[in-house]
């Protein structure tokens, strides 16, 4: 799939503001600092579509983008950073849950995990919520350029064991080198079949 156009749609701090369109949607989940903004920018080949390196603790929103006038991208708020004040944590975890519960057009979730970290409660909670809604998740390991091939293999073993999934279900990316871009776009294309059947 080629990226022909990318438009910012809106930034939403509550579920009532989510766009009502029915374009097939792809969501990006991950902890603060996991490299989510960098990865989305890399995917779209845009330098600053999503602001990177921003300090946590600021307003948390779900940001929507439209790709090639036909595919919706949702950038979910980062979570789990120790310095995020409790009141903000309380406000945006429900927003993430509401997002998963309410988006009937959600086709696939990319759950980003820093390859150097062990997934914990946050990732497991997101996965279990997605699975309740029968939304497939692509476990996306970020910042893979930071490790050697051997180190990567070790991390993949650990992470797949922790999440109880096959290691083939994990895929490796780097916003720095562009690794994983083709595979992610291929996955988006594959899952972006139109929602409305004939006669709808
Ligand atoms: P976000 O909070 O998840 O949106 O994370 P950012 O995209 O802002 O990235 C957090 C930090 O990690 C920044 O300093 C990025 O430059 C760095 N970073 C992000 N992706 C990569 C990557 O693939 N490789 C390397 N080496 N650094 C990365």
Question: What labels describe this entry?
Answer:
5 helices, seven-stranded mixed β-sheet, alpha/beta, 200 residues, single chain, Rossmann fold, binds guanosine-5'-diphosphate, globular
Present as ligands are: guanosine-5'-diphosphate
Broad shape = globular
What gyration radius follows from the Cα positions, in whole Å?
16 Å
Tell me, what is the CATH class? Alpha Beta
Characterize the biggest β-sheet.
7 strands, mixed
Structural class of the helix and strand makeup?
alpha/beta
Number of helices: 5
Approximate helicity band:
25-40%
SSE string, helices as H and strands as E: EEHEEHEHEHEH
**Order of adjacent strands in the largest pleated sheet:** 1-3-4-2-5-6-7
Count of β-strands: 7
- Mean pLDDT over the residues: 88
How much of the polypeptide forms β-strand, as a percent range? 15-25%
What would you note in describing this structure?
The chain has a single domain, classed as Rossmann fold, CATH 3.40.50.300. By secondary structure, it is an alpha/beta fold. The model has no long low-confidence stretch (mean pLDDT 88). It has helices at residues 36-44, 86-102, 121-132, 149-163, 181-191; strands at 6-12, 25-30, 62-67, 71-75, 106-114, 137-142, 170-172. The chain binds guanosine-5'-diphosphate. Guanosine-5'-diphosphate (GDP) is lined by residues 30, 32-38, 52-53, 78, 142-143, 145-146, 174-176.
């Amino acid at each position: 799939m080629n990226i022909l156009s990318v438009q910012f749609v809106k930034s939403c701090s509550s579920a009532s503001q989510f766009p009502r369109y029915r374009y097939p949607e792809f969501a990006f989940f991950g902890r603060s600092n996991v490299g989510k903004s960098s990865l989305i920018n890399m995917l779209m080949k845009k330098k600053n579509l999503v602001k990177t390196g921003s300090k946590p603790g600021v307003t948390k929103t779900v940001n929507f983008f439209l790709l090639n006038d036909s595919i919706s991208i949702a950038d979910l708020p980062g979570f789990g950073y120790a310095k995020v004040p409790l009141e903000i944590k309380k406000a945006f975890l429900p927003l993430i849950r509401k997002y998963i519960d309410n988006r009937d057009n959600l086709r696939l979730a990319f759950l980003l995990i820093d390859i150097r970290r062990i997934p914990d409660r946050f990732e497991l909670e997101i996965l279990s919520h997605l699975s309740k809604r029968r939304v497939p998740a692509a476990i996306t390991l970020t910042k893979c350029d930071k490790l050697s091939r051997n180190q990567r293999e070790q991390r993949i073993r650990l992470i797949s064991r922790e999440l109880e999934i096959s290691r083939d279900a994990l895929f490796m990316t780097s916003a720095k080198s562009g690794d994983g871009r083709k595979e992610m776009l291929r996955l988006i294309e594959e899952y972006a079949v139109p929602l409305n059947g004939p006669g709808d």
